[in-house]
Design brief:
By secondary structure, the chain is an alpha/beta fold. The chain contains 16 helices and 26 strands. It has a nine-stranded mixed β-sheet. A hairpin with a 7-residue loop joins strand 7 (about 150-160) and strand 8. The longest helix has 17 residues, at about 30-50. The chain is globular and about 70 Å long.
Length: about 500
């Protein structure tokens, strides 16, 4: 039985040792055999330092070497915590204070940066020095023999509503179960060539990282700057014969919304998986037309559910006003739609998405209070302990029994006596001619809906068009046309930044 993620690497390194596993597309390539060598070197170095079952911070730029550091930490019987210079310094310090790690693994660029942070007694070491350590295979085998499938692999920090980041810890069992199900949904195999969009300090990168070592596939780590230049981005996909994308919707929309397909189209794509946001139908249909032979799969899942937990294979273009479902849960997990009183939502009724099953994360690291708030006893089961995770996402089931995402609980507002989904306003705006991207925020103090957008129509013209689509109480009171909108490091629209801009202006 598979109970440890590194078993995937051992098998692939034996089967295809000289194949490239991870590449930056230019100077840095890691074959499976070299990846295994680095993994064992880092794991042995941790063992020699007496570091075991502890958090080890990996502070490196997105690179094949960073991935080797992750696997090396796991080989040493510890769990990795990725951080990146993109993160605000205050956030990094909060993470370090929570973890108190015994070791920080750096690349040369990050080595000087660590001097700006309080590390207490933690040691800072270059990855290349650890990777050169002669492997102690007997020690590493003993470490893995003693491990169990509920041992943590990583802690990934997400945003917290209090301003304090939450460290989501997940284990071998959850990750193995996830990647086995995902591999079937996406039809991953040894011919898969991923194009990685996500920063490596998000759990979303598990699809490519673990999918690659499981299948003996290849992942190209796409340079971040290409996501602001759509034509060179598609040319990069073509040059490296990338056939599988697992991207946030905003990254896909940045290609389709700016006429890229009139100049160049992806030539090798066979799978386009998307998630984390609602795909505007107008933009999805452009992808559908541009890559007619590809499988399009909508994925849904929170970090606390260890990656994605639902999927829907799109088999047709969608009409304006339709929503692409998030579909059905993967095997070995169940989605409960619960009402405010803890009962199952009736057919067609909205409810909060709650997840039960193997995929649940272990909880929030060093934060039992917030863990108890989100990982709760299943209210439908009073016979024995059974945790579910409350996502804060609202959904309903359509006539086919598929789940349809409605909104975030915290993205609903009470305006003019009406309960409003800001996402619905965004969807209607994005469907209008000439509008590329739209984002909505709410000024609770003044009771105003504010819409930011990129596109051709002037503010007053767009408002006139919206009046034909929305009831009066849903119309924005202010509209701002922008040449560019802010995005998070993960590629999503950054509505918090827009709200800060609005409040500051």
């Amino acid at each position: 039985m598979q109970n440890h993620i590194l078993n995937y690497l051992y098998k692939s390194a034996k089967r295809v040792p000289d194949k490239i596993a991870f590449s930056d597309g230019s100077s840095e390539n890691l074959t499976f055999s070299r990846l295994l060598r680095h993994t064992r070197g880092v794991g042995t170095a941790l063992h020699q330092r007496g570091i075991y079952k502890q958090p080890v911070v990996v502070f490196m730029k997105k690179s094949p070497a960073e991935i080797a550091a992750f696997f090396g930490v796991v080989a040493g019987g510890c769990f990795y915590v990725p951080i990146d210079e993109e993160m605000p310094a205050a956030r990094i310090q909060l993470i370090l204070d929570n973890l108190r790690p015994p070791l920080v693994i750096c690349d040369r660029d990050a080595l000087d940066l660590t001097k700006n942070f309080r590390l207490d007694s933690g040691e800072t070491v270059l990855f290349e020095d650890l990777a050169r350590t002669d492997p102690d295979l007997l020690a590493l085998e003993d470490i893995q023999r003693k491990s169990i499938d509920t041992d943590p692999i990583y802690v990934v920090f997400t945003s917290g509503s209090t301003g304090i980041p939450k460290g989501v810890a997940s284990c071998h069992r959850a990750v193995v179960d996830y990647i086995e199900q995902l591999s079937e949904v996406l039809a991953l195999d040894g011919d898969t060539v991923f194009g990685s969009q996500t920063p490596l300090y998000f759990d979303a990168c598990l699809k490519e990282l673990i999918g690659t070592i499981r299948c003996g596939a290849t992942t190209y780590l796409i340079p971040k700057n290409l996501f602001s230049t759509p034509v060179p981005l598609v040319e990069y996909l073509n040059a490296h014969r990338i056939n599988t994308l697992c991207w946030v919707v905003s990254a896909l929309t940045m290609i389709s919304a700016f006429g890229t397909f009139d100049l160049v189209k992806p030539e090798h794509l066979r799978t386009v998986a998307f998630g984390s946001e609602v795909f505007p139908v107008k933009q999805f249909n452009r992808w559908w037309e541009a890559v007619p032979g590809a499988a399009f799969i909508n994925l849904y899942g929170p970090t606390e559910g260890t990656g994605m937990c639902c999927s829907y294979r799109v088999r047709r273009p969608f009409a304006n006003g339709e929503a692409i479902p998030i579909g059905q849960p993967f095997p070995n997990r169940e989605i409960l739609l619960l009402t405010k009183d803890g009962t199952l939502a009736a057919e067609g009724e909205e409810g909060e998405i709650c997840i039960r099953g193997t995929s649940l994360a272990l909880g929030y690291y060093n934060d039992p209070g917030r863990t108890r708030e989100s990982f709760v006893q299943n209210p439908l089961n009073t016979a024995y302990p059974e945790l579910i995770y409350k996502t804060g996402d609202i959904a309903r089931r359509n006539a086919d029994g598929d789940l349809v995402f409605v909104s975030r609980k915290d993205y609903q507002v009470k305006h003019m006596g009406h309960r409003i989904e800001l996402g619905e306003i965004e969807v209607q705006a994005a469907m209008l001619p000439g509008v590329k991207i739209a984002a909505c925020i709410y000024d609770a103090k003044k009771g105003k809906i504010i819409l930011y957008y990129m596109g051709d129509p002037a503010e007053r013209d767009l408002l006139a068009l919206l009046k034909t689509k929305l009831p009066r109480y849903m119309l924005p009171q202010k509209l701002f046309r922008r040449d560019a909108l802010p995005f998070t490091a993960n590629g999503k629209l950054d509505r918090k930044a827009l709200k800060s801009e609005y409040e500051a202006g």
